[in-house]
Fold each of these.
Amino acid sequence: MSHRNAPLTPTGRLRLARCVVDDGWPLRRAAERFRVSHTTAARWAGRYRQLGEAGMHDRSSRPLRQPLRTPAEVEEHVVRLRSEHRIGTLRLAARCGIAASTAHRILVRRHLPVLAALDRATGEPIRRYERARPGELVHVDVKKLGRIPDGGGHKVLGRAASSPNKDRRNGAGYAYLHTALDDHSRLAYTEDLPDETAATCAGFLQRAAAWFAAQGVTVERVLTDNAWAYTKNTWRDTCRELGISPRWTRPWRPQTNGKVERFHRTLLDEWAYQQPYTSDRERQAVFPDWLDWYNYHRPHTGIGGQTPASRVTNLPGQHT
C-alpha cells in the first residue's frame, strides 16, 4: 500500500513508465518531471516493460525464504487448541512452548477473530446486527436486584454486619427492574416493579409502548427471552392489543437479547453499585437522573459515540 505522502501512486508510476517506454523519454528527464530519483524511474520503467500495468502496484515485502518462521505443525497445534478450548495467547504460548507474541502473530496470520468476538458456548463468531430505524425492534428483559435495607448494606456496614439482611423471609427483598430498550437507538425505559408475573410484565409493556410513542417511536416488534411471563396469553394478548409483534430468543441463547443484557450491566456499574447507598430509597432517588443522563448525554460506544437520543429524530429534550 502506498504511503499517503508518496510522490508516485500506481497511476503516477504508470504515467512515468509510459513516458520512458512508450514515448522514449530519457530516464533523467522523466525523473525530473515526476520529482523522483533516477533509480526510481528506472525501476518503474523496468517493471512496466516486464509486467505491463500490473507491475505498477506494490509488491509484498515478505522475504522469499523465512528460515526462522514457526513450523507448520506448531501453527496447526495453536489453531487446533484455539478452536477446541477457546483460550488466549498466553495460555496458547504456554501449551505450545512458544512466545505469546508468536501465538498472536499466528492467530492474526490465520485470520482468527479475538475471543471477545466469539460465542462462548459454540466458538462461532458473534453475528452483530442493528435494526434500521427506531421502534423496529425493542428488547425487553428483567434484572433482579437486591434491595438495600435502611442503614445500608454490606458496602456501608461490611459483610459481617449486614449478614442478617440475607434472611430470605425477613430481608429487604428484591427489586425487579423491567427494561425496554430500542435496538436502533439504544433508548431505554426502565421501571422498578415488585415482581415479574405475567400481569406485571404486560402492564409494563403498555406503559413502555406509551413512553416510546411520546418520544415519537412506534414499537413494531418486541423481543424477550422464554421466561414464564412472556410465554403466557396475557403477554400475547397485550402485544396484539398494542399492535406489536412478539418475538422470543432461542433457548439458552441470551446473546440474542444482548443489547438489553448489556444495558443492565451498565446500569449496575454506573448506578446501582456506583457508590454506597444507605437505603433503597436513596438509590432509587438518583435513578431518574441517571436514566436521563444515559438517554440524552452519555456517549454510547455501540453506536459510534452518539447518545441514544441523537438517533431518534426530533426527540424532545435531546439538546438540553
Note: Residues 31 and 40 are 8 Å apart (CA to CA).
Amino acid sequence: MIVIKPILIEYKSIDTLGEAQHYVLKAVVNNGKEILLSHPNLFLYHETNGSINTSKRYANIISQFYSYLSTEEKFSNIDISKYHVLIDNRDIRKWQIDRQIKRVEKQSVKPTSKTIFEEARILLKFFKWLNSAGYVTNVSVQYKDWRANFKNKRMLNYIQQKAKKVVDAKNIKSLDKERRQSSSKSLITNKEIKALIDAYSDPVYSALFKLSLGTGMRPMELVQFPFIGNGDNKHIMPYSEMDKDKATVEFKVIGKGKKLRAVRINIKDLKELDDTYIKPFYNERKKLYRKKQDVECPPSILFLNKSGNPITPVMISRRSNDAKLKAMQSYPDFREKITFYEARHWWPTMFAIEFFKEKLLNESSEVLYAAFGEALRNQMGHEDLETTYKYYIDMARLVYSAQQGAVHELLVSPQKSVQELLDEMEPKNTQKGV
C-alpha cells in the first residue's frame, strides 16, 4: 500500500494575491520517492482554500481512497499521478464495500453506512471538478452506479462472508443501529428556541428561523420564499392580500437535488411573518437594495438584511453561529450542538406527535402509515421514506414520553402560529418544558 500524507501548507496565492492555506497530498512510493499529487492538490486549492476543516476532511478522504486503490491489481503498475484517468464508478463503489468489510471484521460502529456514503459523494465532487476543469477522467457523475447499496440482502450477505466472521457477529444493520443509539436524540427546547430568536441581531434571521420551525424547510429553500410569487406560486403575496379561507398555503419550492416539491405553510405563520418582518422592515430594506443595485428589488426576493442584501444560506449559517454564542451567554443551558438546522427537525417531530398521540408508545406506530409517511416525505423532501419515518417516530416518542403531563401543549394546530405555540409551551408548573 502506498502511504499518502495530507500536509497543511500556507503561501501567497498568485491568483488572489492573498494568503492561501489548505492541505495537499504527498505520496511516498515504494522506492521512498515522494510525489505531490497534482490533480487532487489543484482540487484542494480551488475548492477548499479558506476552510481548513473542509480542506483537511477532503484531503483525508482522497488519501484513503488513493491508498486503497494502490492495493488493487488494476492499479499495480500504474503511476499514482495517473490514477484519476483510470478510476471509474465501479472503483468508488468497491471502496465503499471494502470499508464495510473491514468495519464488520473489526465489529466497529464507525464509519457508519451514512459516513461511507457521504465520503464517497465527496469523491464524486472531486471528479466533477476534474471534468469541469477539462481533465480526463473515467468517472461519470451523471449516474448513481457509484453507490454501494448496503440495504440489498445479497450485498449484506457478501460483506458478511468476506469479513469471515462467525454467524452471531454483528452485521452492518446492527452496527449502524448501535451507532445511532450511542448518539442521543434530543429536540431543541422551547427555551433554546426563544433564546436563539432573541439573540439574532437582525430580525430577518428570527423570521427565517420561525418559518423553518413551522415548515421544516432548509435554508436554501427558505430564501426562495417570495414577497409576491409567480407561476405555481402566484397565489403567494403579503398576508393582508391573501385568501384566508384555508388553514394552510401551498408553496412550490426547488429543494435538494433540484427537485420541485410542495410545502404546506400555516396561514398564521404567514401572518406572523407579515407582522414581525414584512410590515416593519421590508419596504425600508427594499429601498436600500434599490440604492445599492440601482434596480428595483424583484418581488421574488423577500428576505433582505439590514444593508439591503438578499439573504443566502451561508449568511444564515454565519449569523446563526453568532446568535448561538450570544444565546449561550444569556441562557447557560443552551447546548453548543444547536444550529439553525435544528428547526428542520422540530416540525416533523411535532407532526408525528399530533398524528399518533398516545399511539407513539405502541410499537405498531413504527409500521409505515401511508398517509403520515407521504405527508412527511412531501414536506421534508426526503427520498428514503423508511429511514425518515423511523427517525422522527423515535424522536417524537422520546418527546412524548418526557412530556406526557403536558403533551397537549406540543400539538401543532392549523389555527396556531409557531410563535403562539411557543408562548403556550411555557411550563405552567415545576415540570420542565420541552
Note: The chain has a mean pLDDT of 82.
Amino acid sequence: MNRPEKTFRATQIHLERRLPSYWRVTFDHPPLNIFGPETIPQLDEIITALETDPQVKVVVFDSAVNGFFLTHYDFFAPLKESTRIPPGATGLQALPDMLARLSRAPVASIASIRGRATGVGSELALASDMRFASREKAILSQWEVGAGLVPGGGPMARLPRLIGRGRALEVLLSADDINGELAERYGYVNRSLPDSELDGFVDALAMRIASFDKQAITETKRLVNTASLPSDAEIAPEWDAFLASVQRPASQTRIKKLLERGFHRAGDVENRLGFHVGQLGS
C-alpha cells in the first residue's frame, strides 16, 4: 500500500487518505472523545468531501482515544452554541443533517468500534452503512433516557429498522451499556471480532470495496437506501425533543447528579455510564 497521505487535520478529527479511494476518519479528542458544537463544522467538512470527491469509494470511522470511539454531546457547551448553528443541506438541524447525509453519501461507510460508542457515537455508527466492533472493548449505548433526556441524532428512527421494535426499546429505555458480543447478537453491529482481529478485518474489507467500481457501489447503496433508510421527516423531531428535554428541571437535576459523580471527566462514571444513570433515581 502507498504511504498514507494526511490531507486534513482538525482539532478533534483527522482525515487520512490511505488511497484516493479509501479514507480513514479518526476521532481524536482526549480524554473522552466528547462531541460538541465545535466538532460539527469539522465533521460537516469531511462529510461534504465524501459527497463530492469523485474518487473516494469507502470511508472508515475509528478512534485514536483509548477506551472511547465517540461519546455523548458536550453538556458544558452553552445551549445557544448548538441552537445557533443553521440547518444543513437537508433542512435538518446540523447534527441530524450530517448523519442523514452520511447515510446517503455515494460511498460505503464503516464504523470500526473500539471503546465506548455512547450517544452521538452510537448515532454516528447507526448512520454508517456497516458497524464492526471489538468483542472485548466495544460498548454501545443510548444512555440519554437514564438522564431524563431524549436522544437527538436519529436512533429512534434507525434502531427499530435495524434490530426490531422490542430490542430498540430495550436499548433506548434501559439506557444501559451493550457490549460487542450482545450488540452482534441483536444486530446493532454487523459483527463483533476479537480485538486483535478488528483492524485487519476492517482494513481488508475497506480495501476490497475500494477496488470495485464506484458507480456500482453508489447505485447499489442508493437502492438499499430506498428500502431501508428513514425519511428526514422521521428524524427531524428527535433533535427538537432532545433540546427541549435538556432544559427540563428533571433532566437538569439528573445531569447535575451525574456531574457530581464525575460525568464529563475521565473515570468510572464515563467508563460505566450505563450503570451510573441507573443509580440516579435511587
Note: The radius of gyration is 18 Å.
Amino acid sequence: MNPSQQPRIPERTSAGHDAELSPITRDGARTRTSDRVYEELVTAIRELRLAPGASLSETDLARQLHVSRTPVREALARLVDAGLVRVVPQVGTRVGLISLRDVEEARFVRESLEVAAFEVACADPTVDVTVLRELLERQEHSCRTEDYDAFFFADEALHCEIFSLSGYPGAWQAVQRMKLQLDRLRRLALPGAATMRELIDEHRLIVDALENADLPAGRALISRHARRALERGPALRTEFPGYFTD
C-alpha cells in the first residue's frame, strides 16, 4: 500500500484540540441539550474523533459544542456510567480505552442477531434487495475514491438494511448500542483499497445469498464477516498500545 492509500489514523486528540466536534444547535424539538451533547460525544468516541485515552475538559467541550458547562457535565456523568469515559484521580477525565474482551462480546451479539435477521429475511419470498445493491454501488464508489469514511457509513447502512428486511429494525439499534467498542476497532483498522475490495466482494456474496435464499451460505458469510475486525485486534493493540486496555 503506498502512502496515499493509507487510511486516516486519528491522533490522540483532547477536547478543544482538533477533536472535530459538531456544535449543538437548537432543532425545535423537546430533546434536552444534555441528551444531544451525550449523543454527539458518543458518536465522536465511536468514530475516533475523540481517540481512546483522549483528555476531556468540560470547558473545552462546552466551547466546541456551543453550550454551557452544565449539559456537558451531565453528559459526561452518563458516559462514565456507560463505561465510555473514565475519571482518573489526579489525572482527569479521559475517553475509555478499547477492551478486546468487550469487542469479543459485541462481536458475539452482532453475529448472533445478524444471522437471525438474515434467516428471517430469507424466509420472505418477496424480499427486495434493491437497496442493498445500491449500497454496494456506494461502496464501490468509496473504494475507487479511497473515501474510507464513506465506505464505513455505507457498510453500516448495508447491515442495517438486512435487519430492516427481517422486520426487526429495532434489533439493529440494540446492536449499535452494544458494539461501540467493536466500531472503534473497525475504525482503527479502516482498510486500504485491497482490503476494501475483499469486504465489498464479501458483502456482494451476502446479498446474493439473501436474494437466492441460500441460508447455509449466508450464515457462513455473516459469521466470517463479523469476525474480521476482531482478528486484527492483537496486531492493532501492538501497533497502538496506548489505545487498549486488558
Note: The chain has two domains: 12-96, 99-245.
